[in-house]
Amino acid sequence: MITLYDYWRSSAAYRVRIALNLKGAAYESIPINIAPGKDEQFAESYATMNPQMRVPAIIVDGHVIGQSMAIMEWMEETLPGPSLLPESPLDRLRSRAFANVIACDIHPLNNLSVLSALRTDFQADDAAVTRWYQDWIRRGFTALELTVADLPRTPFLFGDRPTFAEIALVPQVANARRFDLDLSEFPRLVEIDAAARQLDAFIRAAPENQARPAT
């Protein structure tokens, strides 16, 4: 069984939960409370094991490996079950590129450590932090909406099943909604998000269906 170091609201961990569910893989979730003021990722026991001090991370052959996109690639290479990528090489490239706009361009600018730094180092108030958060999602989603505009109108972006693209999109749309971003400019992204969230793998991975840390 796979061991997943997890946090219920982490969008990166959310991606990995979706991917594990799509693969039908059994896993044990070990919660790491990364909320400000809790900071369990910095505890010596976790930091020694995972020097990145982030979630998610998984244990593979006794080694702790982080980074959600790398974990998803590992799943695709090693785990049985439905593929997490489209069939054609071009669509595989497109799906990976779509996912990486979210994982590499949008998410790093909006993670908890950045938002905390905005508040503590630059004295940003809640309104300023929200503007920052919304702006970077809007920029990324604008590019993604244009990127997929001319794709065939299939149930998901690259065919009849979700791939890396949807696995990355759904958690980021959830974040956008949490920060009250108007999504009306992104109808195709909203449509795909709605379709994916009907699937059991996405439902079981959703933050609201995870165990909450004690407050």
From TrEMBL:
<dbReference type="InterPro" id="IPR034330">
    <property type="entry name" value="GST_Zeta_C"/>
</dbReference>
<comment type="similarity">
    <text>Belongs to the GST superfamily. Zeta family.</text>
</comment>
<protein>
    <submittedName>
        <fullName>Maleylacetoacetate isomerase</fullName>
    </submittedName>
</protein>
<dbReference type="GO" id="GO:0006749">
    <property type="term" value="P:glutathione metabolic process"/>
</dbReference>
<dbReference type="InterPro" id="IPR034333">
    <property type="entry name" value="GST_Zeta_N"/>
</dbReference>
<dbReference type="GO" id="GO:0016034">
    <property type="term" value="F:maleylacetoacetate isomerase activity"/>
</dbReference>
<dbReference type="GO" id="GO:0006559">
    <property type="term" value="P:L-phenylalanine catabolic process"/>
</dbReference>
<feature type="domain" description="GST N-terminal">
    <location>
        <begin position="1"/>
        <end position="83"/>
    </location>
</feature>
<dbReference type="InterPro" id="IPR040079">
    <property type="entry name" value="Glutathione_S-Trfase"/>
</dbReference>
<dbReference type="InterPro" id="IPR004045">
    <property type="entry name" value="Glutathione_S-Trfase_N"/>
</dbReference>
<dbReference type="InterPro" id="IPR036282">
    <property type="entry name" value="Glutathione-S-Trfase_C_sf"/>
</dbReference>
<dbReference type="InterPro" id="IPR036249">
    <property type="entry name" value="Thioredoxin-like_sf"/>
</dbReference>
<dbReference type="InterPro" id="IPR005955">
    <property type="entry name" value="GST_Zeta"/>
</dbReference>
<keyword id="KW-0413">Isomerase</keyword>
<dbReference type="Pfam" id="PF13410">
    <property type="entry name" value="GST_C_2"/>
</dbReference>
<dbReference type="GO" id="GO:0005737">
    <property type="term" value="C:cytoplasm"/>
</dbReference>
<dbReference type="InterPro" id="IPR010987">
    <property type="entry name" value="Glutathione-S-Trfase_C-like"/>
</dbReference>
<feature type="domain" description="GST C-terminal">
    <location>
        <begin position="88"/>
        <end position="215"/>
    </location>
</feature>
<dbReference type="GO" id="GO:0004364">
    <property type="term" value="F:glutathione transferase activity"/>
</dbReference>
<dbReference type="Pfam" id="PF02798">
    <property type="entry name" value="GST_N"/>
</dbReference>
